[in-house]
Amino acid sequence: MTKAGLLALLSHWRRNPMQLFTLVVGLSLATALWSGVQAVNAEARASYDAAAETLGEGQFAQITSADGAIAQSDYVALRRAGWLVSPVAEGRLQGIRLVGLDALTAPNGLGPVDFTDGALTVETLLGGVLFGTQATLDRLVDVDITKIVSGDVAPNVILTDVGTAQRLLRMDGELTRFIVAPNQPVTQIPLDQVVPNLTLRPPQGGSDVARLTDSFHLNLTAFGLLSFAVGIFIVHGAIGLAFEQRRPVIRTLRALGFPLRRLVGLIAAELLVLSLVAGAIGVGLGYVVAAALLPDVAATLSGLYGASVSGNLQLRPEWWLSGLAIAVGGTALAAAASLWRLAKMPLLASARPRAWAMQAGQGRKAQGVLAVGLLVAAALLGVFGSGLAAGFGMLAALLIGAALALPLLLDRVLAFGASRARSVMAEWFWADTRQQLPGLSLALMALLLAMAANVGVSTMVSSFRLTFTGFLDQRLASELYIYADDAAQASQLQDYLKPRVEKVLPIQSISQDIRGLPSEIYGPTPHATYRDNWVFLQDAPNAWTRIENGEGAAINEQLARRAGLAIGDQITLAGERFDVLGIYGDYGNPIGQVIVTEAVFEALFPDIRALRFGVRMDPENVTALTIELREMFDLSEANMVNQAGIKAFSLDVFDRTFTVTGALNVLTLAVAGFAILMSLLTLATMRLPQLAPVWSQGLTRARLGRIEILRAVMLALLTTILALPLGLGLAWTLLAVVNVEAFGWRLPMFLFPLDYARLAVFAVGAAILAALWPARKLARTRPSDLLKVFSNER
Amino acid sequence: MFLRVSDLHKSFAGPDGAIPVLNGIGMTLEAGETLALTGESGSGKSTLLHLVGGLDQPDSGEVNIEGVNIGMLDDAGRAAIRRETVGVIFQQFNLIPSLTVASNIAFQARLAGREDVAWSGELADRMGLADQLTKYPEQLSGGQQQRVAIARTLAARPKLVLADEPTGNLDETTADAVMDLMLNLVAETQAALLMVTHSERLAARMSRRLQLRAGKVA
Fold this sequence. Notes:
heterodimer, B: six-stranded mixed β-sheet, globular
């Protein structure tokens, strides 16, 4: 009996292969976009975790110094005072992070430092060898030390013993930090009595990089989810149609004695199989998407956050499983209402396949109430909400509310059009379009979301880029930036440069926590360069003059927002209190920043010497000076960067940052285009009874085809027009709510009408392409097929 | 001669090759004349009606309406014939679901550029549809829908009315009432009427009768 029932149900797909195709492709695309993004995120997180384990970040407490350098004698003092610490010497070698560990004292569980098994043993580590991934080791040239490939070491990191690291980094007698073993002796001398210049940082439960990049990954996840939602619209439509068209079979099966529960079970099992097949295809496609996106994501994370992410995608079992799970879950979500209706359908319910489209139009009132409720919730979250979750909650409520409101708004617009129609064709066109609306609603909602995402993200990115470019022009005022290798060279360079250029501006800084937040303190030389170019978002009267007089400090927006600081509040730097006199925009910087004048900085941190300089000079002489300095001081290319070079690099980092979102935008729009195509094709098969009477009364098939294209274009255009305010609302939420919560700074919002017009042309073009096939099919429909509508025997 | 059909052949593709439906049919119809087309199911009645109405094309033979061989016309030409000369009443009503009753009645007349609001209103009145004008087809009974379909056809004042079992879906009483109305109105507009019917009783009310059998005039 079960087999007979199953065969009857499956015969539907055999007779409707296009519907099966729509269902599988819709679900595959949805899963692909979602799992592609998840694969990228998983790869990046795996890299952070490897880095955190390797470097002891996160899971162990650390002892560090304010200026980053620790004398080796401090290590001896700490061990004698009963502290179980392990020394680390680290730095950059040819752009690669070199970490030297002491294998004998390193706590167990410190990443790949596994003393019991594997290639990395005490003997090999003590033997002065370099461990790293193949890609990292390949980049290290002219280092005559044995290299061992290890997949356990994080990307862009090389691991060795502390002595070798000190030698390679020229850190004789110097260390960078201590890793503190989790179990310490009960009796030990307090840290401030042993090494008062050092501070203990507790374990952070996750690496700095992981926390810094959380927002970035959250954004990617949100986009993945949005793409998945667009795909699920297609699946929902295909499943709903399949259920409606199978009503006669279902009724007949039940009338013949097939149990309802088994029928529901069979359909659920059928959907499960279909979702697993589509999920597997989707995960495979997702791998392709992820492989294409990963290099840009890796470059973004490296450029923006200094985080190293492997450029190679690995196939992780949990990722495969989560891809399949989301496909099955999405199908269940899309099919829930249909299954419920089937379970509740009376035996004598109409066997005639009700127009699925008309049925979709039912419950319009409830849809309207839900839409208004969600939009109100979005507004309330915008006004009263706080935190990143509230920001994303607002986005979700705004997007879903708007999508639900779309059919109702379009209906009103079409009703208005109908009321203004004068000719008979116009009257029919508006009325018929209105009748098609329920069947096209899901595809149009998908288009609305995709368009709004495009408008929103492009507005955000373009606003960001405009602000960022202006910001770079202000900040990078010096014509040339020079990096000295050591303090002695820095001093020589300053002496050499002073008579030859307009002004040498030393850049001295130190990393410190301010109000518990990681920050950098800068001590610039008083000069017009800063007064003229650093524009305050908020300031006290005569702020620059007072800062130059040592009366206070300026802070960046990030620190102000996170620490709740305002003009007139006080911050403590090296035990001294300073008034906050100015707050400046500092776009792209993930941490806090403080500016005090040079004299104050030197008094607070007498040991810090500037190794970097900004040089104000005639731009035309920059090239000549760099050649001169290379010959005089043996400075490499990396030690001298001109203003244009930094700007180009910064903009490159910026552009790469949004390559991923741009690619997702295009993919989402393509999925929406597919949704429209499939909806139009589906409707085309149901349209004959509506079109045949019009044809019989004197319209050609070709004209009907052209009208179908016009209808698709008009609906796409109306949806685009409605997507514009929604997209701008999305952009505002991203810039004014999500960005502030995630990064700590707010961006001004600019409008880009030409971009929107281009997007509208693209959407209309997509609608024309999607409508062409169904319209061509209609124009070529044989009269005999149209006549079947009128046939008594049909 | 208003309508002349000569040596008309039409076949349809079947799983085992072409299935002939009309095998050399010939007939004529004068202006204002009414003709009943009868025959068993599958005898080719509806196919003949469709060919005469320009809804389909014959394999061979001619359909001349007012001296024009409509088989020689292109798609647009045949559409113009359907729009301006012929009016078809279907058994399944085939109203336009997105338009109101009033718009449905006026639809073809407006397409043909012959809208006559007073005439449409009179038709609606006489068909008993005056209080249904703002409703949509799905809100009407079968008899009401058929009356709308007849009114739609007659509102355009076609020279030839083709009716394919126009009362086939109605009960006898309603069918008689609808038929009375239709015949009266056809007479008033001086249109020719070609009606397919299975009913001997209805066929007897036409001025002439043509019986088909296996695609030929019996």
